[in-house]
Amino acid sequence: MSVATARIVGLDTAGIRRTRAEADGTTDRLPHVVPVAPDLGVVLADDSGALLTEPALRELGWTDDDVVRAAVEVAQQQADGDVAVVRPGTVVVQDPDLAVLLVAAPSSLQGIDLEGAPVLFPVAPTTFILTGADDATGLQTAAGLAAQILADEDGGVLSGPPVVLGSDGWQPFRHDGVDADLRTIRALWTSTAANLQQEALQAVLERRGEDVHVAPVSVARLDDGDAAFAYSAWTEDVETIVAAVDTVVLVTLDGQTLPMPFSRLRELVPGNVDELAVRPVRYRLHGYPDVEGLRAQL
């Protein structure tokens, strides 16, 4: 057997695939994903096109380091340097082999002039937007393009939140100058990933005999020009699973509603919130809290 291709995958996307496989009973066919950056991993396929599973790699005696090394080697052989220049200092990497090098071995890439540290928006399998951390216009351009792709429900998405290259590799990227754009991107990705997983996760829970509701995620803006935010509803007496949303709307049986920042809800009633061991990140909400008591603490 020889390795023919390597590809970057979103870890949340891989998590969705795992949830669907658990619902179908086909987890033994899942490819082995090696994380190489926040929210991103790499997979290998052999010369027949079959993705390599954990048992197959174990049989070869390969470690995760071996997988990354093989991914970089095969990508170096096949990358053709296909990039689209959006503006000076901001490019879109469209070659999947070049994307492997960009994410797994960024020091191997030369010839792309950026203002500041590289910032990567990995939004689609053939859309890796690269700009510089000190390039204000480039960041706005990249963030706008990423949000446009994530908002397109017909588009194939890979991940969402951008990363910046530092001395310890890729790290989550934050920047006050484009904070609203970054919050919008995260909200759109949270909604996309959670809703792609919703049906399969509900099926897995029902198979286990668990009476719990997997809440859909919606995205809204308070005013034009504001950052978008992701939200889900939690109805009284209904044990509910939510994604890592910005806002949870509590709904009582007598019709009262209380929109509440999810971070604040976790802070005030930590015993009512349990994080689940799945990707995308999910939380189980149980033991309905006193809404009026919460309202008084906002």
Can you walk me through this structure?
This protein has 298 residues and is of the alpha+beta class. It is 35% helix and 28% strand. It is built from 8 helices and 17 strands. The protein has helices spanning 11-24, 54-60, 64-78, 96-104, 136-151, 179-207, 262-268, 291-296; strands spanning 3-10, 34-37, 40-46, 83-87, 90-93, 118-124, 127-132, 163-166, 169-172, 213-214, 218-220, 229-235, 240-243, 247-251, 257-261, 273-275, 282-285. Strands 4-5-7-6-8-9 form a 6-stranded antiparallel β-sheet. A 4-stranded mixed β-sheet has the order 10-13-17-16. Strands 11-12-14-15 form a 4-stranded mixed β-sheet. Strand 6 and strand 7 form a beta hairpin. Helix 3 packs across helix 4. 36% of the residues are buried.
Search tags:
single chain, 298 residues, alpha+beta, 6-stranded antiparallel sheet, 8 helices, globular
In short:
The chain has 298 residues and is α+β, with helices and mostly antiparallel strands.
Describe the secondary-structure layout.
Layout: E1 3-10, H1 11-24, E2 34-37, E3 40-46, H2 54-60, H3 64-78, E4 83-87, E5 90-93, H4 96-104, E6 118-124, E7 127-132, H5 136-151, E8 163-166, E9 169-172, H6 179-207, E10 213-214, E11 218-220, E12 229-235, E13 240-243, E14 247-251, E15 257-261, H7 262-268, E16 273-275, E17 282-285, H8 291-296
Parallel strand pairs: 10-13, 12-14
Antiparallel strand pairs: 1-3, 2-3, 4-5, 5-7, 6-7, 6-8, 8-9, 11-12, 13-17, 14-15, 16-17
Helix pairs in contact: 1-6, 3-4, 5-6
